[in-house]
Design a protein that fits this description.
The chain is mostly beta strands. The protein has two helices and six strands.
Length: 100
């Protein structure tokens, strides 16, 4: 996750697997490096998530640590956005030491 945040252009269009603190909100869906980053609004330590309608089932995992897989877009997948984003493919609840 740190490498993705530090150099998102290096991962442009590539399949990645990482873990972080998931936040699904009306204002925008994102995965943060740590829960504290979310609580303090440190968006520089996050990636936006692009969820399909079918993926709205993930809402039960909001505000939890998750293991995620997807394709990374350094420019958010659009010309207008400068926020890196991740097109989510798969997820799992994550606990340090084991995947639940």
């Amino acid at each position: 996750m740190v490498a993705l945040i530090a150099a998102p252009n290096s991962y442009e269009g590539k399949f990645i697997r990482t873990h972080g603190f998931l936040c699904l909100e009306i204002e925008g869906d994102a995965v943060y490096l740590r829960e504290e980053d979310y609580r303090h609004g440190l968006t520089k330590n996050s990636f936006a998530l692009r969820l399909s309608k079918q993926q709205e089932q993930f809402k039960s995992l909001s505000l939890k640590y998750v293991l995620i897989e997807g394709t990374e877009y350094a420019k958010g997948g659009t010309q207008e956005s400068e926020t890196p984003s991740l097109a989510l493919l798969r997820h799992a609840l994550f606990s340090y030491g084991e995947v639940l």
